[in-house]
Amino acid sequence: MKKCPICGHDVSDGDIFCSNCHTKLSKSELHHFWRNFKSGSHKRRNLFIVGAVAVIITLVLFFPRNAVCGDMKCEGGLGEDSGNCCIDCGCPEGLHCKITPGGYYCSAECGDGICSLGENHDECCEDCKCPDGESCVEGECIEVVVQMYCENIDYQNEKVRNRAANIASVNQGSYNLLQVFDIYDWISENIAYVSDPNSMESVYHPSETLKSGAGDCDDHAVLLASMLESIGGTAEVLVNYGCGHAYARVLVAVDDEGFEKVQNIVKQRYGEYAMTYWEENGKYWLVLDSAAVSMPGLLPEPCKEKKADYKIRSCK
Asked: Phi and psi (nearest 5°) for 93?
C-alpha cells in the first residue's frame, strides 16, 4: 500500500488526491517518496550493524575470556604461563611438565642429569653434585671411605654365597649362631693376614679375597660381613681410625634372654672369657675380628676403648 507523501495516509494506485489531506498525487511524487523511504531503510540497517559491532568490541575489551589450559596454545595475554599451565607453555630447562590433581606444573625430575631449581644433593645426588669427599651411591651422598667398603660388602656374589653355604651346611637348617661361628672360624684359619701395598689403602671384593686366600683387616671384615649376610645374617663393618683397624659385628640377639643363650654357646664352644659386644635399643651385636684375634667377641686392646668412626652396611 502506497502512502500520501504529505500526511502518510494510505492511498491507492489510482487515486489522484489524498482522501485525508486532499493533496494532489502524481506519479513523480510517489516515486520520490518510495526512493526516500527505501534509502532510509538502508541507513537504519547500517546503523544496526555498526551498533552490533560496537557491542561485540565492548564485550571483548571489557569482558575478556579466560585462558583454557590444555588447548596447546600458550595464551600469555590471558595470564597463562609455564607456572600454571606447562602443557601449553612448556617449562624452563631442567624442569619437566607433570600432571597433578591441581593441573599441570613444572617440577624437577631426579635423574635427568640437570641440577634444577628446587633440587639439591640431599634429595637427588644423581643430578646435584655431592660435597667434596663424598660420592653418590644409590641416590645418597656418602663419604668416599664408606663407599669403598659398602660397595664391596657383596652378599649376592655367587662365589661368596657358595662358600658360605658350604661352610654353614655343617650345622644345616635356618640361620643360626653355630653357622656364624663356623664361618668366623673358617676365615680365621684359611684367610691369611697380608697388608696392602705401601701408601695404598684398598678394600678388595670378597670374591678376590677368597681367591687369593689373604687380605688385611679391611678385607677380613668385608668378607665376614658378606658371607654372614649371604646366609641370612645381619652384619656390619666397623672402621675405627682411633686404633687403625677394621672389623665386623653381627646381630646375635634381640632381647636379654636371647643374649644369655649366645653367651652359653660361646662358653661351650670357645671357653669362658670377657666378650666385646654392644647393646643398642634392646638388640645385641657381637664383634667378630678374624684378622687380629682368634675368637669371637675379642678385639685388640687399643680398639676396646675406641669408638668406631663408621658402621657400614652393604649399599648394593
From this structure: -60, 135
